[in-house]
Amino acid sequence: MSLKAFHLIFLIAATLLSLGFGAYSIHQFSQSQSISYLVMGVLSSLLGFCLVVYGRFFLRKLQHISFL
What we know:
Elements: H1 3-32, H2 35-61
Helix pairs in contact: 1-2
């Protein structure tokens, strides 16, 4: 497995975990009304979207390098 493929898999996993945790935290905020859940949810979701932008940049920059 190349470094590019490993980086892409790790990036996808980090993005899904970040967005999933953001959704979980916002759901918990709707039930408990604790501000800390809202802050964690918003920051985690923002990080997830930043990882999506970075992933697009990464794929465009290294599109000429194979995955093998």
